[in-house]
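This part of the workshop introduces the protein records we will be handling. The structure tokens are whole numbers drawn from a learned vocabulary of backbone shapes. The record below serves as our worked example for the rest of this section.

===
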Amino acid sequence: MTAQPLSQDTIAAIATAIVPQQGSVGIVRLSGPESVSIARTLFHAPGRQAWESHRILYGYVRHPQTEQIIDEALLLLMLAPRSYTREDVVEFHCHGGIMAVQQVLTLCLEQRARLAQPGEFTLRAFLNGRLDLTQAESIADLVGAESPQAAQTALAGLQGKLAHPIRQLRATCLDILAEVEARIDFEDDLPPLDEEAIKQQLRQALAEVEQILATADRGELLRTGLKVAIVGRPNVGKSSLLNAWSRSDRAIVTELPGTTRDVVESRLVVAGIPVQVLDTAGIREATDRVEQIGVERSRTAAQSADLVLLTIDAQTGWTDADAMIYEQVKQRPLILVLNKIDLVASPPPLPDLPPTPTVKTAAAHQQGIDALEQAILSRVEAGALQAANFDLAINQRQAAALTRAKTALQQVQATIADQLPLDFWTIDLRSAIQALGEITGEEITESVLDQIFSRFCIGK
């Protein structure tokens, strides 16, 4: 699909989060040919302020019929093509809250603008050549980033650090395709095809594709985070561990077993990775109906977690109850946490288990938390973070397209090895080119665009 500008209508939306009775500034954004005309109808700029591009005007938003003042505001003009969408863009910077921005938006909609669809501003930026598709997706990742590392990775994508190598790979495939098709059409007029050179180009392209594909797990981790469940029998210090780790009193801590009746959640960031920590109810055979529900939710949380922290009481050591819980969670990535280590002279012996990382903590005194975080990072790195280039972190859509490109390039290699005619080479080369073009948006369908941009907020 070739990028084409959208129809010449003007869209409007609230571009900032709106919280009742909170927020100092709320922005209403317009994009399209009527943006400046609508702004002139609604905005009164006293004095001789110049209505020029990339200038801020001070004044009032007024009802065009009644001239009632709706808000005291600033107006920012960004005329095409020097704007986010490469169309005329106008922003009303109003007072925050709900009423002011809602009233300004309503006035814009009454003046021939229509409400923007989710992601439509960024979609226009893509279709008008302002951004490629990887940059557009990076904007969504930046808005939704939950850690500094996730934000930095999104910024790297916005700066073209993914698009550049993808375009180079596609250019390589196009060059090979041109060489092959030239030999098909003008075999008698050209020197023989240099198969060894093409094989070398394919090997290098495949290596680069695999290197970028290796960032998929990291990308998913940075976007969705890591879900960690703290499990164990009652009164082993699970809630104390959560409180020490989050440096808060999220969970109630008492000497009474069974205090935690439901899953308590806290969100942390560990080495740039968002972590959702779930403190679960102590797992045991309960007779109380409420505690039974809590225990069942604990088991569910453990089964859905990316990583389980099986917490053991150092005072009592390994018990039959611990063994029972271990059997339920041993199929999940696991770390043993030997808590209350400060209350014993020496650590109690643990059973002969398959190799499992073990961390000693004294949660009540916030000891061992650094070691716990390091153990978690070691487990993550052993599984997911194998990518050498941490500036890149592709998403699932990009990984799927790259996987298709990898398969196609491997098929080209097999075709060459089987000494099949040149026409067969071109089939898989075109498939690789198509797949790589889908990543940057040079080859894309409307249905894919709809799927991508529907996940954006309306003001983006």
Q: What stands out?
A: Confidence is low (pLDDT under 50) at residues 1-6, 250-262, 384-390. The two ends are 23 Å apart (CA to CA).
